[in-house]
Amino acid sequence: MNNHGGHGMGDMMGMGSPPTSAGGAMANGTAGGGGMMHRHHMMMHMTFFWGKNAEILFSGWPGYDNLGMYVLALIVVFFLAIFVEWLSHCKLIKENSNRFAAGMAQTVMYGIRVGLGYMVMLAVMSFNAGVFLVAIFGHMLGFFFFGSKAFKKDSPSTWKTSDLPPMSC
Q: What is the Cα–Cα distance from 22 to 36, expressed in whole angstroms?
């Protein structure tokens, strides 16, 4: 393998040798020397995998080998996806609103929708199959309740899809 200036590809992706502390001790405490530094080092997956040992959105979250926090992370991703769909299909701005105020409200709602959509995307980029599935099911359920014709009460000619333009992805 090409060395890349003293760092192998594993080192560049966070999978190489554990770092050392200032005193020379290995991070896992296996070498003698100065103070010990304990740091759990997770491998970053680059293919889909099943299991609760994943980092989703934030470093160290939901935590290694913690089923309860993993389930909480799945619930958060699920409801983020539902909320993105709600924002994509909601009608909060009244037709006779001040045009500038309505435009500002649309812009803020658009920014929130894009930001939350990117958060769901980043969660899916953990390559955890459970996260992938709850994101899809969250978007599907959100669309069913807020975007599909199943719960529209008025006639199709009066349906306004949303205050916001359609998502571009």
A: 10
Instruction: Give CA–CA dist 93/34, Å, rounded.
Output: 63
**Prediction pTM value:** 0.66
Give the Cα separation of 6 and 11 in Å (integer).
9
CA distances to 26, 88, 111, 147, 159 from 106, in Å? 53, 11, 9, 18, 18
Q: Each residue of 117-156: pLDDT tens digit?
A: 999 999 999 999 999 999 999 999 999 999 888 887 766 6
Q: How far apart are CA 79 and CA 94, in angstroms?
A: 26
Question: How many helices and strands in the chain, by DSSP H and E?
Answer: 4, 0
Burial 26-57, CB ≥16 within 10 A → b, else e: bbeeeeeeeeebeeeeeeeeeeeeeebebbbb
Q: How many CB atoms lie within 10 A of CB 85?
A: 22
pLDDT digits (tens, 9 = 90+) for 55-76: 888 887 887 778 899 999 999 9
